[in-house]
Amino acid sequence: MTKEIPKWAQDEIKNAKFGKPESITRTGYILEIYDKDMKIDAQVYEAVEDGRKIIEGMSLPKKTKPSDLMKGVVYEFTINAHKAPLGKKLIEFLKKEMEIDMDAIYQFDLVGLEMMDVDSDSAGSDESEDE
Q1: What are the helix (H) ranges across 17-109?
Q2: Do the Cβ atoms of 76 and 113 come closer than 8 Å?
Q3: Which of 14, 41, 58, 73 could form a disulfide with 31 if both were Cys (CB 3.0 to 4.6 A apart)?
Q4: Where residue 4 falls among pLDDT bands split at 50, 70, 90?
């Protein structure tokens, strides 16, 4: 039987106030592309602030077409990370009653992404060097 989260806890989570976004850059790859929703799931090599390495449901920047993206290719992601700290009472409740160790809610917005040139060490070199 799963425990119900009381209304006061649901309300606090729903009404959490996000602070100013922190811009972070991570490299990783796309796990899934949701064309209709204009979102992606991505795995990053270096964890974000809350420890996760998989970020689900990031909205794509408006100028990015899902059809231009490729899964399994290394990208550099520029992400705005928003953090909403939780109250002491809620943190304690989640830890004791729900066995969830969480002190904030995070939201990640994809600001930009750039495909990395990983299989070539001539990045930036001019190929018409033979004279």
Answers
A1: 88-97
A2: yes
A3: 41
A4: confident
Give 39: exposed, middle or buried? Use CB within 10 Å, 0-12, 13-18, 19+.
Answer: middle
- Sequence-distant (6+) residues with CB within 8 A of 22 are 49, 80, 81, 83
Q: Encoding tokens for residue 130? A: 């033979």
Under 8 Å between Cβ of 33 and 71: yes
Q: How far apart are CA 41 and CA 55, in angstroms?
A: 6
CB atoms under 10 Å from CB of 113, counted, come to 20
Q: Which helix H or strand E contains 9, and what residues bound it? A: helix 7-14
Nearest to 102 by CA among 126, 75, 83: 83
Q: What is the pLDDT of residues 42-88, one digit of tens each?
A: 999 999 999 999 999 999 999 999 999 999 899 999 999 999 999 99
Tokens representing 14? 């729903």
CA-angle at 68, arms to 74 and 44, nearest 5° = 25
How far is the C-alpha of 68 from the C-alpha of 53, rounded, in Å? 23
